[in-house]
Amino acid sequence: MHYENGQPAGIPEREAGFRESINMPGKLMVNVNLLRTENIQVDIYNTEGKQVYGSTLNGNAGGNEMDFIIGPPGFYLVTLGSETFKSTFKVIGGDYPGVVATSMPSTPEYKSEPFELTSNPRFYYDYNNDPVNDEKFGKLYTWASATNVEYGWNVKLDSVIQGICPNGWHIANDTDWMQLELYKGMTPDEINLIFVMNRGTIGRTLQSSDTTYWNYNWGTGDAEFSARGAGIFRQGEFVLLKEQTNWLTYSPKWGPMLRNITDGTGSIIRTQIHFNQMDWAYSVRCVKDY
Prior knowledge:
Number of domains: 2
Low-confidence stretches: 14-26, 83-117
Largest sheet: 6 strands, mixed
Strand content: 35-45%
Mean pLDDT: 77
Radius of gyration: 22 Å
Helix content: under 10%
Order of helices and strands: EEEEEEEEEEEHEHEHHEEEEEE
Number of helices: 4
Distance between the termini: 25 Å
């Protein structure tokens, strides 16, 4: 998967044993499974080879979870000295320990592959890593993978972002969505609502009526949009297939945003993407430039 300029859009799926992006800058957790209680040496290095942490810690037999604050965002290498690892150790990032990098054993030390500590991970997925779901529901993208924008508090978004879309097209922005909602029958007052659950009643007109794509056939099967319940990727797992769809969108005022429709309700939720959700993956709709 590439942008139109040829740049890779990110890593296609989580591959055990190698680099993974971490969803919260600065915080690092290491999970160690020991055969017996022992002192282990923990060393962490940055890409320049400079040691940013080093200490001997006491580990108990069984599972051990150790927290470190190492930032800033960047690439790091973890080295653990021990003779009693069962087989692997894990590097886990952020408040949600779903994104995991697992190192394979070596002798006499265990070393992780270099991993990236970043608040803007670039991943895209087929639901459950199954290409069949890509054909049915489309891919799921993290914010940075979809938009090719590294977002931060001081970043002001353009009103039009091409991102993963082909030339002549852009990722549907907040204004595009509001125009669609008005066309489908939402009132101007409803369109401007944000951060509320009950926003309009036109959600079902956007849904496919085919239960191949939703749990129930409450959608109208409107061929102009015909949304499918693609689910999302969050906190390390795929959830909500055939129950809801969340589309990435954006505005210069609100920053990264989402539109959400859920099986069984007519509302279209309009909300922001929080910083601790930048490693979650959502659907994308492209709109032809105008």
